[in-house]
């Protein structure tokens, strides 16, 4: 038996790990697990990283809920052509599981997912995963001091709930009048239709964000015509991707410190960008000049170049890296449309100027529900208040991790932990250390419950929002970093090493700790 609730796909793929089920939560006689100490949500970098770090510390009483049939989160779901990381792979990976075998500086999606699967196998996490278990409800019980969990398959309780459901895991479709009447094919880039051959088709791509600039160069040579609907041009700098030589891979295998050295160098280089974004926007001017030269080198037509030239401060929206996007859009079968879309008809897209663009397929590169995701609606803290209620004005959490009114609930890469310039895995690992120290403190103090003090969380969020005012993200552009009220609730307003420093130790003075619950009947 591999896993009582394993999906058939996962069961087949990880069959060799079926025998590992020794170190997992106890089941009662009927094979049910009724209570676990820790429940983690998701098998992306966050959930998997948490599971690995717990396992390394000797914890065995934890489960990982995964709504899908495989590991990887972002890197399982985004399979569009050209999908790859945009932070170099040496850095965009766990510090405790360096991979000397990356094929490229920016490795493709398939390789990143394989890396995560390998980590899950190597660190013995597979037997802890409950596949096809979508979290439907999590309710805190004050009487029992534990969480009641309902998934698509079962019910159980847990002392501690850790949400690693990912900030970019719910694709957002655009609200355009008439889009539901479109009679061609329409899909989001995170749900790529591999069954659909785009050869010879007239394709509309909506959006020019991080995903679109990766898949447009891949589909452009195939399609008959590509209408690229651009709201705002992104700042794009050269990616300079290249294969990693066999000699280098051998060196990294033999002398891992050499790869660690490269990783540190990349980290410091990336971190420099925060200087311009957060502390001194003048420092971005060099970057803007560099990006303009990149555009000028790759696009000869002055009219097209004008359309592709950003007119906002670099960094206000995510800075993108690409060597092949501009050459692709400069091809004769591509039209960059800067007029706003007015409506979609059965076979065409109409822009504000009244022009009709006939298309067979619409691909939405329109991002994700970041500040308005669904999951918070099904997490209920003290008094039945949902996380969505607590966040009705704006999402917020102390260190992106803890929310008042939600005891023993921890978020991984929650509000204001996102980055415009460096690896999210660095932020995730900072939180993992913080939580491990928190659990150690709970054990040492024999505490059953920890909860962030509301005044501490409020002061923290004031500080974050205060600092945000001076950053490039507040310089006036429209971006997915901002919520409906214009507050930047997604990004960390500083150097990442500051976040690491502040999460190095669990600051128990900022939390209420309640002692172990002992029922009167015992
Ligand atoms: C195309 C793309 C490229 C990116 N490139 C980079 C990059 O180069 N560098 C970088 O730093 N960041 C990048 N990011 C950001 C990326 O999302 C994070 O780096 C990281 O992968 C997030 O990991 P996660 O585990 O928090 O979330 P995810 O990877 O989204 O994983 C969340 C998991 O939770 C599961 N889940 C969600 N809801 C439920 C539920 N209700 N019940 C059960 N399971 C649930 C999901 O199925 C999923 O497996 C990229 C994002 C995208 C979309």
Automatic annotation (TrEMBL):
InterPro entries: FAD-bind_Monooxygenase_sf, FAD/NAD-bd_sf, Flavin_mOase-like. One of its GO terms (molecular function) is monooxygenase activity. It comes from the Bacteria. Residues 1-27 are annotated as: Disordered. Residues 13-24 have a biased composition (Basic and acidic residues). The keyword Flavoprotein applies. Keywords: FAD, Flavoprotein, Monooxygenase, Oxidoreductase. Belongs to the FAD-binding monooxygenase family. This is Flavin-binding monooxygenase. It comes from Ktedonobacter robiniae.
